[in-house]
Design brief:
There is one protein chain. By secondary structure, the chain is mainly β. It has 5 helices and 16 strands. The strands form 3 sheets. A 7-stranded antiparallel sheet has the order 4-7-2-16-15-12-13. A 6-stranded antiparallel sheet has the order 1-5-6-3-8-9, with no helix packed on it. Strands 10-11-14 form a 3-stranded antiparallel sheet, with no helix packed on it. α4 packs antiparallel against α5. The N terminus and C terminus are likely disordered.
Amino acid sequence: MKARMSMTVATLCGLAAGPASASVFGSLANFDVVNDTGKPAYGFEIEFDDASFDHTKIVSVFGLNRNFGLAGGPGAVERFGLPTITDLPGVGVKITYGGTIGSVFTPFGPYNTPGESCWPLAGGWSTAASCDHYGVTTLGTPASTKYSWLVEASPGVLSARPTGVPAVQFAYTPPVPAAGGQPAVPAAVNANIRAVAPNADHPENPALWGEAFWVKTFTTKVPNAIDLGNLLRGDPEQEQAEVETEWSIFQKPPAGHVGDGPNEVKVKDLALGDADKAVIRRYEFYKYAGPFNVDGSGEVDCNTACENDPPGLDPASGHASFVGDFVGAQMAGFNVEQVGAPVPEPGSWAMLVAGLGVLGLAVARRKVALNARASQRRALRRTDAAFVSTVLSTMRPSRGRAARAPRAPARRPRACRPVAGSRSGP
């Protein structure tokens, strides 16, 4: 059996080790997910299935290295506390919240408040709620991402049950200048989601159609790089997102299906202007409560007219609604600018600077009046900036401007004061 290295990362330095790359672009995701497994969930997993991915590609994890000012530190925003990161050599990397059968669990049942609302700083949430909030920032986009609840499959044994909320895959196409009489082609970002949930009644049977959902899609392009804070509801840029698709059916086809299923993949190509530096996408998922094919395969029976205008949305119609309970929301972002460009410092230094740049250096760019949650976000970014200063001052790169040897304290003129957060001694 291949060795697996498990660790709990205490600081961003531990997350940021690794070589720099000139072709890496930032991918971020924040999402709410409801436990609709019918069983208490004793944890949650985010797994990146990509052999090129390990813990060095993970820049930030919600509940691990983002301090929102709550007593108990970063883990206080998560029901299960601090997550662990496990490298899976030859496979990828896994982030685990909880994972132990005990008194801490996510109850099951409906939760009908869509949006970023399943964590302690969201109004109305408590440990009695059947939903939780998770988030992760990576350097680049992994080949495949899976989200799963950890439920008790047999007494004392936990197994991973895939959720209905999929990861967003981004692919960037750089601009092509005009040449040879051909017009210039603008840069573009391709965003797609793929249905992953198995059949709700018989998840062990891959020959059946997967659980069906409705998905609403929102999108916006912004003129600056973004971080996880921009993927929280209440953020001005998140709220600028416009409805792109009102309602669309989303369902995984059975094993052996030739090609993509009719409702398996949702793809969108977004052309970028010169001023567009990031893309924000929001997907909201609801249970499908309409009819299914009479053959018992589990395939939805909803034609184009039904999909364009789901029956029952208007209570006055008297028709039973085809749109069921809210399942979860995925808020995803993509930074167009490179976050791992070559620099004269060693690779580990470059990766650290790049990761911290994604997370917290855009500190004071807002000039609009914000609500209480946005004020907490500003305080968080100030904390991030102070953390950046402290971490950078403790590192001694070998070349470049940052490699300038510090002056010994005894020789520093009295009029000079050390920079806040810097080391004042050897």
